[in-house]
Amino acid sequence: MINEILVHEEQWDGPQIQPGETVWNAPRPLFGRTWEGRFRNGIFYAITTDTDDPRFAEENIQLDAKRIRFVNNADAEQAVLAKLKENGYETPEDVDSTMAELAFLFGLPYVDE
Fold this sequence. Notes:
Elements: E1 4-8, E2 21-26, E3 33-36, E4 44-49, H1 55-62, E5 66-71, H2 73-86, H3 99-105
Parallel strand pairs: 1-5
Antiparallel strand pairs: 2-4, 2-5, 3-4
């Protein structure tokens, strides 16, 4: 199983990601197109593509890399509403909260506009 780090697409400060590219983050240097950046799971980042040697992804996983999964507010809202519904609620107001507060509590990146 690959562990993921959720990053809001508006808060991404790395290079622009193209379709077919996977971004990895780890506490040690990785395989792929690499750079150092903001600490999440470590400061080492790499991009691999669908056309790279598949061993790059395998090695990155062995190096404790986590895949970056980009999300937006709609993704976070959908997850929050699903969690509320599991517990018999419909809206953040039903639990005297806001969408931003609940997203934070559930560990979801959310940009409060």
